[in-house]
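Check out a protein:
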Amino acid sequence: MQESTARTDIDEESTEKVASPETLSVWGLAWPSILANVLFASVGVVALKAVGNLGTDAVAAVGTGGRIFFVIQSIMMAISTGTTALVARAYGARRYQEASQVLYDSILISIFLSFISIFVIWVAGEDLMNLFGLELEAKDLALDYLKVLILFAPAFGVSIVQGAAVRAAGDVKTPLYLGLIQNVINIFLLIGLVNGRFGFPELGVVGAAYAGGISFAIGTVLGILVWVLKIITIPLPKLNSFSFSRFRELIHVSTPAGLEQGVFQLGLLLYFWIISLYGNAPIAAYNVGINILMLSFMVGQGFTVAGATLTGQFIGAENPKEAKRSGWRSAGLTMVSMGILGIILALASRPIASFFVDDPEVIRLTVLFVWLLGIMQPLMALEFALGGALRGAGDTKSPLYIITISLIFFRLTFAGLFVWLDFPIEYIFGSLIIDYIVKGILFTYRFESGRWIKLKT
Protein backbone atom coordinates (compact mmCIF):
# COMPACT_ATOMS: atom_id res chain seq x y z
CA MET A 1 0.00 0.00 0.00
CA GLN A 2 1.30 3.46 -0.79
CA GLU A 3 1.94 5.89 2.02
CA SER A 4 -0.71 8.30 0.78
CA THR A 5 -3.30 5.56 1.01
CA ALA A 6 -2.18 4.65 4.50
CA ARG A 7 -2.51 8.26 5.61
CA THR A 8 -6.14 8.46 4.54
CA ASP A 9 -7.22 4.99 5.53
CA ILE A 10 -9.45 5.54 8.56
CA ASP A 11 -10.95 2.61 10.38
CA GLU A 12 -14.52 3.82 10.78
CA GLU A 13 -15.34 1.22 13.42
CA SER A 14 -12.45 2.32 15.62
CA THR A 15 -13.35 6.02 15.40
CA GLU A 16 -16.27 5.40 17.68
CA LYS A 17 -13.92 4.19 20.42
CA VAL A 18 -11.20 6.85 20.04
CA ALA A 19 -11.25 10.11 21.99
CA SER A 20 -10.14 13.34 20.33
CA PRO A 21 -7.32 15.37 21.97
CA GLU A 22 -9.84 17.89 23.31
CA THR A 23 -11.59 15.20 25.38
CA LEU A 24 -8.35 13.97 26.98
CA SER A 25 -6.92 15.46 30.17
CA VAL A 26 -3.49 15.46 31.79
CA TRP A 27 -4.71 13.70 34.92
CA GLY A 28 -6.96 11.32 33.01
CA LEU A 29 -3.99 10.17 30.97
CA ALA A 30 -1.54 10.25 33.87
CA TRP A 31 -3.22 8.33 36.69
CA PRO A 32 -3.46 4.90 35.01
CA SER A 33 0.16 5.21 33.90
CA ILE A 34 1.18 6.31 37.40
CA LEU A 35 -0.63 3.36 38.95
CA ALA A 36 0.94 0.99 36.42
CA ASN A 37 4.37 2.45 37.18
CA VAL A 38 3.81 2.19 40.94
CA LEU A 39 2.83 -1.45 40.55
CA PHE A 40 5.98 -2.01 38.52
CA ALA A 41 8.04 -0.21 41.18
CA SER A 42 6.51 -2.48 43.82
CA VAL A 43 8.09 -5.38 41.98
CA GLY A 44 11.45 -3.66 42.38
CA VAL A 45 10.82 -3.33 46.11
CA VAL A 46 9.97 -7.02 46.42
CA ALA A 47 13.03 -7.92 44.34
CA LEU A 48 15.28 -5.74 46.48
CA LYS A 49 13.93 -7.29 49.66
CA ALA A 50 14.25 -10.82 48.31
CA VAL A 51 17.78 -10.25 47.06
CA GLY A 52 18.69 -8.14 50.11
CA ASN A 53 18.28 -11.22 52.27
CA LEU A 54 21.18 -12.75 50.32
CA GLY A 55 23.65 -10.04 51.38
CA THR A 56 25.35 -6.87 50.11
CA ASP A 57 27.11 -8.69 47.25
CA ALA A 58 23.78 -9.86 45.88
CA VAL A 59 22.30 -6.33 46.04
CA ALA A 60 25.36 -4.91 44.28
CA ALA A 61 25.20 -7.69 41.67
CA VAL A 62 21.54 -7.13 40.78
CA GLY A 63 22.06 -3.37 40.70
CA THR A 64 25.07 -3.62 38.39
CA GLY A 65 23.57 -6.26 36.09
CA GLY A 66 20.32 -4.33 35.96
CA ARG A 67 22.12 -1.12 35.12
CA ILE A 68 23.86 -2.72 32.13
CA PHE A 69 20.56 -4.27 31.03
CA PHE A 70 18.91 -0.84 31.14
CA VAL A 71 21.65 0.47 28.85
CA ILE A 72 20.66 -2.19 26.33
CA GLN A 73 16.96 -1.48 26.85
CA SER A 74 17.56 2.22 26.23
CA ILE A 75 17.62 1.33 22.54
CA MET A 76 14.07 -0.01 22.83
CA MET A 77 13.06 3.09 24.75
CA ALA A 78 14.32 5.17 21.85
CA ILE A 79 12.17 3.24 19.39
CA SER A 80 9.21 3.66 21.74
CA THR A 81 9.80 7.43 21.78
CA GLY A 82 9.50 7.54 18.02
CA THR A 83 6.49 5.25 18.22
CA THR A 84 4.79 7.56 20.73
CA ALA A 85 5.35 10.67 18.63
CA LEU A 86 4.16 9.16 15.35
CA VAL A 87 1.18 7.28 16.78
CA ALA A 88 0.02 10.34 18.74
CA ARG A 89 0.26 12.52 15.64
CA ALA A 90 -1.58 9.92 13.56
CA TYR A 91 -4.39 9.72 16.10
CA GLY A 92 -4.61 13.50 16.36
CA ALA A 93 -5.06 13.57 12.57
CA ARG A 94 -7.45 10.56 12.72
CA ARG A 95 -5.13 8.38 10.61
CA TYR A 96 -5.63 5.20 12.61
CA GLN A 97 -4.32 2.68 10.08
CA GLU A 98 -1.12 4.70 9.80
CA ALA A 99 -0.70 4.36 13.58
CA SER A 100 -1.09 0.60 13.25
CA GLN A 101 1.63 0.41 10.61
CA VAL A 102 3.96 2.50 12.82
CA LEU A 103 3.49 0.04 15.67
CA TYR A 104 4.08 -2.93 13.37
CA ASP A 105 7.34 -1.44 12.07
CA SER A 106 8.43 -0.59 15.61
CA ILE A 107 7.92 -4.17 16.77
CA LEU A 108 10.01 -5.54 13.92
CA ILE A 109 12.82 -3.11 14.67
CA SER A 110 12.76 -3.85 18.41
CA ILE A 111 12.96 -7.62 17.85
CA PHE A 112 15.92 -7.22 15.48
CA LEU A 113 17.81 -5.00 17.94
CA SER A 114 17.03 -7.35 20.83
CA PHE A 115 18.80 -10.27 19.19
CA ILE A 116 21.83 -8.09 18.56
CA SER A 117 21.80 -7.20 22.26
CA ILE A 118 21.74 -10.87 23.27
CA PHE A 119 24.78 -11.55 21.12
CA VAL A 120 26.71 -8.60 22.55
CA ILE A 121 26.08 -9.52 26.19
CA TRP A 122 26.92 -13.19 25.78
CA VAL A 123 30.14 -12.32 23.96
CA ALA A 124 31.32 -9.24 25.88
CA GLY A 125 29.32 -9.34 29.13
CA GLU A 126 32.28 -10.31 31.31
CA ASP A 127 34.41 -7.49 29.91
CA LEU A 128 31.64 -5.01 30.67
CA MET A 129 31.29 -6.34 34.19
CA ASN A 130 35.02 -5.94 34.84
CA LEU A 131 34.64 -2.18 34.48
CA PHE A 132 32.80 -1.85 37.79
CA GLY A 133 35.45 -3.18 40.13
CA LEU A 134 33.06 -5.50 41.93
CA GLU A 135 34.47 -8.11 44.24
CA LEU A 136 34.76 -11.55 42.63
CA GLU A 137 31.59 -13.06 44.08
CA ALA A 138 29.48 -10.00 43.28
CA LYS A 139 30.88 -9.85 39.74
CA ASP A 140 30.08 -13.51 39.04
CA LEU A 141 26.56 -13.08 40.38
CA ALA A 142 26.01 -9.95 38.28
CA LEU A 143 27.20 -11.67 35.11
CA ASP A 144 24.95 -14.70 35.69
CA TYR A 145 22.00 -12.39 36.36
CA LEU A 146 22.63 -10.36 33.20
CA LYS A 147 23.10 -13.34 30.88
CA VAL A 148 19.75 -14.80 31.91
CA LEU A 149 17.85 -11.51 31.82
CA ILE A 150 19.12 -10.52 28.37
CA LEU A 151 17.60 -13.68 26.86
CA PHE A 152 14.19 -12.08 27.39
CA ALA A 153 15.16 -8.84 25.60
CA PRO A 154 12.77 -9.47 22.65
CA ALA A 155 9.83 -9.70 25.05
CA PHE A 156 10.91 -6.51 26.82
CA GLY A 157 11.28 -4.72 23.48
CA VAL A 158 7.88 -5.69 22.08
CA SER A 159 6.17 -4.88 25.38
CA ILE A 160 7.78 -1.43 25.54
CA VAL A 161 6.86 -0.31 22.02
CA GLN A 162 3.34 -1.73 22.14
CA GLY A 163 2.63 -0.08 25.48
CA ALA A 164 3.94 3.23 24.13
CA ALA A 165 1.71 3.01 21.06
CA VAL A 166 -1.44 2.15 22.99
CA ARG A 167 -0.88 5.02 25.44
CA ALA A 168 -0.15 7.44 22.59
CA ALA A 169 -3.52 6.47 21.12
CA GLY A 170 -5.14 7.65 24.36
CA ASP A 171 -5.76 4.20 25.88
CA VAL A 172 -3.89 4.18 29.19
CA LYS A 173 -6.07 1.63 30.96
CA THR A 174 -5.28 -1.46 28.86
CA PRO A 175 -1.53 -1.23 29.66
CA LEU A 176 -2.51 -0.84 33.32
CA TYR A 177 -4.51 -4.07 33.32
CA LEU A 178 -1.81 -5.97 31.46
CA GLY A 179 0.83 -4.58 33.80
CA LEU A 180 -1.15 -5.67 36.85
CA ILE A 181 -1.26 -9.26 35.62
CA GLN A 182 2.41 -9.16 34.69
CA ASN A 183 3.48 -7.72 38.05
CA VAL A 184 1.51 -10.25 40.08
CA ILE A 185 3.25 -13.03 38.16
CA ASN A 186 6.60 -11.32 38.64
CA ILE A 187 6.19 -11.01 42.41
CA PHE A 188 5.02 -14.61 42.71
CA LEU A 189 8.03 -15.84 40.74
CA LEU A 190 10.41 -13.57 42.63
CA ILE A 191 9.43 -14.97 45.99
CA GLY A 192 9.42 -18.47 44.61
CA LEU A 193 12.61 -18.53 42.56
CA VAL A 194 14.89 -16.34 44.68
CA ASN A 195 14.16 -17.91 48.04
CA GLY A 196 12.86 -21.32 46.97
CA ARG A 197 9.19 -20.91 47.93
CA PHE A 198 5.98 -22.43 46.49
CA GLY A 199 7.82 -25.55 45.40
CA PHE A 200 10.30 -23.67 43.16
CA PRO A 201 14.04 -24.27 43.31
CA GLU A 202 16.12 -21.72 45.23
CA LEU A 203 18.03 -19.90 42.47
CA GLY A 204 19.10 -16.77 44.35
CA VAL A 205 20.11 -13.82 42.17
CA VAL A 206 19.52 -15.75 38.93
CA GLY A 207 15.97 -16.45 40.10
CA ALA A 208 15.27 -12.70 40.06
CA ALA A 209 16.33 -12.59 36.41
CA TYR A 210 14.07 -15.51 35.47
CA ALA A 211 11.16 -13.95 37.36
CA GLY A 212 11.44 -10.65 35.49
CA GLY A 213 11.99 -12.28 32.12
CA ILE A 214 9.19 -14.83 32.33
CA SER A 215 6.65 -12.30 33.59
CA PHE A 216 7.48 -9.86 30.77
CA ALA A 217 7.22 -12.66 28.22
CA ILE A 218 3.74 -13.50 29.49
CA GLY A 219 2.77 -9.83 29.46
CA THR A 220 3.99 -9.51 25.87
CA VAL A 221 1.94 -12.50 24.73
CA LEU A 222 -1.15 -11.02 26.39
CA GLY A 223 -0.47 -7.66 24.74
CA ILE A 224 -0.33 -9.22 21.29
CA LEU A 225 -3.46 -11.21 22.08
CA VAL A 226 -5.56 -8.14 22.96
CA TRP A 227 -4.36 -6.53 19.74
CA VAL A 228 -5.34 -9.54 17.62
CA LEU A 229 -8.71 -9.71 19.36
CA LYS A 230 -9.20 -5.97 18.64
CA ILE A 231 -9.65 -5.11 22.32
CA ILE A 232 -7.41 -2.06 21.91
CA THR A 233 -8.30 0.83 19.58
CA ILE A 234 -5.28 0.43 17.29
CA PRO A 235 -6.40 -1.60 14.25
CA LEU A 236 -4.44 -4.60 13.04
CA PRO A 237 -1.67 -3.81 10.56
CA LYS A 238 -1.57 -4.83 6.94
CA LEU A 239 1.40 -7.19 6.98
CA ASN A 240 2.19 -6.67 3.31
CA SER A 241 2.19 -2.90 3.68
CA PHE A 242 5.58 -1.28 4.06
CA SER A 243 6.51 2.34 3.44
CA PHE A 244 10.14 3.42 3.33
CA SER A 245 9.10 6.98 4.11
CA ARG A 246 7.31 5.80 7.28
CA PHE A 247 10.34 3.74 8.24
CA ARG A 248 12.65 6.72 7.67
CA GLU A 249 10.34 8.96 9.69
CA LEU A 250 10.36 6.50 12.59
CA ILE A 251 14.15 6.27 12.49
CA HIS A 252 14.45 10.05 12.11
CA VAL A 253 12.45 10.70 15.27
CA SER A 254 13.90 7.74 17.20
CA THR A 255 17.58 8.28 16.46
CA PRO A 256 18.06 11.39 18.65
CA ALA A 257 16.07 9.63 21.38
CA GLY A 258 18.35 6.62 20.98
CA LEU A 259 21.42 8.80 21.25
CA GLU A 260 19.86 10.49 24.27
CA GLN A 261 19.22 7.18 25.97
CA GLY A 262 22.70 6.02 25.03
CA VAL A 263 24.30 9.13 26.48
CA PHE A 264 22.08 8.97 29.55
CA GLN A 265 22.70 5.31 30.29
CA LEU A 266 26.41 5.58 29.51
CA GLY A 267 26.58 8.59 31.79
CA LEU A 268 24.83 6.66 34.54
CA LEU A 269 27.23 3.77 34.03
CA LEU A 270 30.19 6.14 34.39
CA TYR A 271 28.59 7.68 37.46
CA PHE A 272 27.94 4.22 38.83
CA TRP A 273 31.58 3.32 38.12
CA ILE A 274 32.76 6.41 40.03
CA ILE A 275 30.61 5.34 42.98
CA SER A 276 32.06 1.82 42.76
CA LEU A 277 35.53 3.28 43.41
CA TYR A 278 34.38 3.82 47.00
CA GLY A 279 33.43 0.15 47.58
CA ASN A 280 30.34 -2.04 47.79
CA ALA A 281 28.57 -0.05 50.51
CA PRO A 282 28.01 3.07 48.34
CA ILE A 283 26.89 0.85 45.44
CA ALA A 284 24.34 -0.87 47.65
CA ALA A 285 23.22 2.51 49.07
CA TYR A 286 22.75 3.90 45.58
CA ASN A 287 20.61 0.92 44.55
CA VAL A 288 18.51 1.02 47.71
CA GLY A 289 18.09 4.79 47.45
CA ILE A 290 16.93 4.60 43.84
CA ASN A 291 14.34 1.99 44.81
CA ILE A 292 13.08 4.13 47.70
CA LEU A 293 12.57 7.09 45.36
CA MET A 294 11.13 4.91 42.62
CA LEU A 295 7.59 5.85 43.65
CA SER A 296 8.28 9.47 42.82
CA PHE A 297 9.98 8.54 39.54
CA MET A 298 6.98 6.45 38.54
CA VAL A 299 4.65 9.37 39.14
CA GLY A 300 6.86 11.52 36.94
CA GLN A 301 6.85 8.94 34.18
CA GLY A 302 3.07 8.83 34.30
CA PHE A 303 2.94 12.55 33.57
CA THR A 304 5.55 12.03 30.85
CA VAL A 305 3.03 9.79 29.08
CA ALA A 306 0.30 12.41 29.50
CA GLY A 307 2.46 15.24 28.20
CA ALA A 308 3.72 13.24 25.21
CA THR A 309 0.25 12.00 24.25
CA LEU A 310 -1.42 15.40 24.45
CA THR A 311 1.26 17.42 22.69
CA GLY A 312 1.59 14.78 19.98
CA GLN A 313 -2.14 14.56 19.36
CA PHE A 314 -2.64 18.33 19.42
CA ILE A 315 0.23 18.77 16.95
CA GLY A 316 -1.39 16.11 14.74
CA ALA A 317 -4.69 17.99 15.05
CA GLU A 318 -2.87 21.23 14.09
CA ASN A 319 -3.58 22.93 17.42
CA PRO A 320 -0.14 24.03 18.70
CA LYS A 321 -1.58 26.46 21.26
CA GLU A 322 -3.27 23.65 23.18
CA ALA A 323 -0.17 21.49 22.71
CA LYS A 324 1.91 24.03 24.62
CA ARG A 325 -0.76 24.63 27.24
CA SER A 326 -1.12 20.91 27.96
CA GLY A 327 2.65 20.64 28.45
CA TRP A 328 2.65 23.35 31.11
CA ARG A 329 -0.35 21.80 32.87
CA SER A 330 1.49 18.50 32.97
CA ALA A 331 4.63 20.21 34.32
CA GLY A 332 2.74 21.94 37.13
CA LEU A 333 0.99 18.78 38.32
CA THR A 334 4.22 16.81 38.10
CA MET A 335 6.23 19.31 40.16
CA VAL A 336 3.66 19.35 42.96
CA SER A 337 3.26 15.56 43.01
CA MET A 338 6.95 14.70 42.88
CA GLY A 339 7.93 17.49 45.26
CA ILE A 340 5.59 16.24 47.97
CA LEU A 341 6.60 12.63 47.44
CA GLY A 342 10.29 13.53 47.53
CA ILE A 343 10.00 15.08 50.98
CA ILE A 344 7.84 12.25 52.35
CA LEU A 345 10.24 9.57 51.12
CA ALA A 346 13.24 11.49 52.46
CA LEU A 347 11.64 11.72 55.91
CA ALA A 348 10.94 7.98 55.86
CA SER A 349 14.27 6.99 54.29
CA ARG A 350 15.94 5.58 57.42
CA PRO A 351 13.26 3.05 58.42
CA ILE A 352 12.75 2.07 54.79
CA ALA A 353 16.49 1.55 54.25
CA SER A 354 16.67 -0.48 57.47
CA PHE A 355 13.92 -2.71 56.11
CA PHE A 356 16.03 -3.61 53.08
CA VAL A 357 19.52 -3.90 54.60
CA ASP A 358 21.05 -4.14 58.05
CA ASP A 359 24.49 -2.66 57.27
CA PRO A 360 24.81 0.64 59.25
CA GLU A 361 27.08 2.29 56.65
CA VAL A 362 24.75 1.37 53.78
CA ILE A 363 21.80 2.76 55.74
CA ARG A 364 23.64 6.02 56.48
CA LEU A 365 24.62 6.56 52.87
CA THR A 366 21.15 5.61 51.66
CA VAL A 367 19.52 8.25 53.87
CA LEU A 368 21.95 10.87 52.59
CA PHE A 369 21.35 9.91 48.97
CA VAL A 370 17.56 9.96 49.33
CA TRP A 371 17.61 13.40 50.95
CA LEU A 372 19.84 14.86 48.25
CA LEU A 373 17.79 13.47 45.38
CA GLY A 374 14.49 13.94 47.23
CA ILE A 375 14.82 17.71 47.39
CA MET A 376 15.58 17.70 43.65
CA GLN A 377 12.24 16.11 42.73
CA PRO A 378 10.54 19.34 41.52
CA LEU A 379 13.42 19.95 39.11
CA MET A 380 13.38 16.32 38.04
CA ALA A 381 9.66 16.79 37.39
CA LEU A 382 10.45 19.39 34.74
CA GLU A 383 12.61 16.85 32.96
CA PHE A 384 9.83 14.26 33.05
CA ALA A 385 6.93 16.51 32.00
CA LEU A 386 8.53 18.95 29.58
CA GLY A 387 10.88 16.35 28.17
CA GLY A 388 7.93 14.07 27.48
CA ALA A 389 5.98 16.90 25.87
CA LEU A 390 8.88 17.80 23.59
CA ARG A 391 9.37 14.19 22.49
CA GLY A 392 5.64 13.72 21.91
CA ALA A 393 5.70 16.70 19.56
CA GLY A 394 8.58 15.12 17.65
CA ASP A 395 11.37 17.27 19.10
CA THR A 396 13.74 14.51 20.19
CA LYS A 397 16.92 16.52 19.55
CA SER A 398 16.51 19.07 22.35
CA PRO A 399 16.31 16.46 25.15
CA LEU A 400 19.45 14.86 23.69
CA TYR A 401 21.38 18.13 23.88
CA ILE A 402 20.08 18.96 27.35
CA ILE A 403 20.84 15.52 28.81
CA THR A 404 24.33 15.57 27.29
CA ILE A 405 25.13 19.01 28.69
CA SER A 406 23.80 18.40 32.19
CA LEU A 407 24.96 14.81 32.69
CA ILE A 408 28.34 14.83 30.98
CA PHE A 409 29.50 18.40 31.46
CA PHE A 410 28.10 18.94 34.95
CA ARG A 411 27.33 15.78 36.96
CA LEU A 412 30.21 13.65 35.70
CA THR A 413 32.65 16.54 35.47
CA PHE A 414 32.05 17.57 39.06
CA ALA A 415 31.99 13.96 40.28
CA GLY A 416 35.33 13.32 38.55
CA LEU A 417 36.74 16.48 40.06
CA PHE A 418 35.67 15.40 43.53
CA VAL A 419 37.34 12.01 43.04
CA TRP A 420 40.54 13.71 41.86
CA LEU A 421 40.45 15.93 44.94
CA ASP A 422 39.93 12.79 47.07
CA PHE A 423 36.61 14.07 48.44
CA PRO A 424 34.36 11.55 50.25
CA ILE A 425 31.41 9.78 48.61
CA GLU A 426 28.98 12.38 49.98
CA TYR A 427 30.33 14.88 47.43
CA ILE A 428 29.83 12.40 44.60
CA PHE A 429 26.17 12.10 45.55
CA GLY A 430 26.01 15.89 45.79
CA SER A 431 26.90 16.29 42.11
CA LEU A 432 23.28 15.24 41.41
CA ILE A 433 22.11 18.65 42.61
CA ILE A 434 24.15 20.48 39.97
CA ASP A 435 22.88 18.14 37.25
CA TYR A 436 19.19 18.66 37.98
CA ILE A 437 19.44 22.43 38.39
CA VAL A 438 20.96 22.70 34.92
CA LYS A 439 18.39 20.35 33.39
CA GLY A 440 15.47 22.19 34.97
CA ILE A 441 16.64 25.52 33.55
CA LEU A 442 17.33 24.18 30.05
CA PHE A 443 14.07 22.22 29.69
CA THR A 444 12.06 25.23 30.85
CA TYR A 445 13.82 27.55 28.39
CA ARG A 446 13.38 25.20 25.45
CA PHE A 447 9.69 24.52 26.03
CA GLU A 448 8.81 28.14 26.70
CA SER A 449 10.56 29.22 23.49
CA GLY A 450 7.91 27.37 21.43
CA ARG A 451 10.42 26.64 18.66
CA TRP A 452 9.69 22.93 19.00
CA ILE A 453 6.18 23.55 17.63
CA LYS A 454 7.58 24.32 14.20
CA LEU A 455 9.39 21.02 13.94
CA LYS A 456 8.12 18.69 11.24
CA THR A 457 9.47 15.20 10.72
Remarks:
- The two ends are 21 Å apart (CA to CA).
- Residues 78 and 290 are 22 Å apart (CA to CA).
